[in-house]
Design a protein that fits this description.
2 copies of one chain form a homodimer. By secondary structure, chain A is of the alpha+beta class. In chain A, strands 1, 2, 3, 4, 5, 6, 7, 8, 9 and 10 form a 10-stranded mixed β-sheet that branches. Chain A is built from 5 helices and 10 strands. Chain A starts with a strand and ends with a strand. In chain A, a hairpin with an 8-residue loop joins strand 2 and strand 3. At the A-B interface, helix 2 and strand 4 of A face helix 2 and strand 4 of B.
């Protein structure tokens, strides 16, 4: 059977996350339903990342074994005709039989979005976390520099994870701010692999730094200390978007 | 009674437009309900523009006579605590007794958003119109130059309007494109006043130009001809956002 890999974009607002679960609307279920409609047989897919309820994706990768070949440029259009408005297949390509969207990716890039304005903004609220008072961007940028590299990120992991180790390698964390009112802040986090809620805790810690609750230099010792209670709060899911999945070594 | 003017931002997706109407959710009703909760008495407001169902606003102006003074910087916060997620008051200021949000504004600026990509994008779809094939931006820019100034815009007015004249003065129409996939196209239209569906028909005409259905130079004669059937189609409401209301002569 040919194995197809495909990139999916979704607005996570009305989803209980990517992965199938009982009594909840998951992106995986919606995609598998479309695959079944298209190929007239039940098809199980594997995704690169579970993603929490409310998290968005511009570039989520999945793979599935399908009963026949649909050309790579036609597959997205065929799927999109069957998918609801909040999910779309952006691209597809055939892969080797042993390729796994879960195990063969080289890393992922997320952006956590925050906006600052004296009043909230309905047009930004869906994909961005509202922070009334502008945080200190320069301090956030200084603190961001400590995350790159291989560290034990136990302080940046929600309890309840089942991982064997909390050591992960991040490629980098960058903070950018655009505009004045609203000021839109993007916290970009890229790395090989992530712990449960890791990006949202990194974003919450950097926001605390921007609000003067944590000094930039303290972030190094918070990473080293491995104590979750020393890091910032987990920011809400709606501000997080999976922006890119690294498939090759690029 | 003090008269207060205030700027409102709303996501128009779940509204039947700004103005109150029977059996539909209108922004005006939601705002008047919050005013009533705040001042404990029924308050009627006047808006700068009705806006169609599905149209968004980053800067809609209203005024209302209120029974007592709430400081200008506190009014938005008090209102926002009472408003649903898809509407917010951004700013407020007290005005003269005879100021009207409807009659005393000097003009408005709209942006119509289109995005182009081989596949649709759930994260752009809410506020942008999807156009699979990239239109010719240079042609659209050339055609846009014909709209500025005072013209009879009968060709750019939906039937059913009740206006006495179809002459309007536009300050300008600009077309910009950002990015490649998706390419996000912004058609900015600013003017003194507008006819029913005028911006959406201008956007539809410029899209036809970008698709080669109308030559840029023909736009001048379409304006002059005054025949609605010669202009492009009315693009969907969701791509349209009221971006600014000009209150002074600036």
């Amino acid at each position: 059977m040919p194995r197809i890999a495909f990139i999916t974009e979704f607005d996570g607002t009305d989803f209980a996350g990517f992965q199938s679960q009982e009594n909840a609307r998951a992106v995986q279920d919606v995609l598998e339903k479309a695959l079944e409609d298209l190929y007239k047989t039940k098809i199980r897919l594997t995704g690169c990342s579970r993603t929490d309820a409310g998290v968005h994706a511009r570039c989520h990768l999945s793979h599935a074994d399908v009963p026949f070949v649909i050309p790579e440029d036609k597959f997205p259009l065929a799927m999109n005709a069957l998918l609801p408005d909040d999910v779309a297949v952006k691209k597809s390509f055939y892969v080797a039989d042993d390729f796994s969207a879960r195990f063969d990716i080289k890393g992922k890039r997320y952006i956590y979005r925050i906006y600052s304005s004296p009043t909230r903004s309905p047009l930004l609220d869906r994909t961005s976390y509202y922070c009334p008072v502008l945080p200190d961007i320069a301090k956030m940028q200084a603190a961001a520099s400590f995350f790159a590299g291989e560290h034990d990120f136990a302080a940046f992991c929600a309890t309840g994870g089942s991982q064997k180790t909390t050591i992960r390698r991040l490629f980098g964390v960058k903070v950018e701010a655009i505009g004045e009112d609203p000021c839109q802040i993007e916290i970009e986090v890229s790395g090989e692999a992530f712990l449960y809620n890791m990006v949202r805790i990194i974003a919450g810690t950097l926001l605390y730094v921007g609000q003067g609750k944590i000094e930039p230099s303290e972030v190094a010792s918070i990473i080293e200390g491995g104590d979750r209670s020393q890091a910032g709060k987990t920011l809400p899911a709606k501000g997080l978007t999976l922006e890119e999945v690294f498939i090759d070594s690029d």
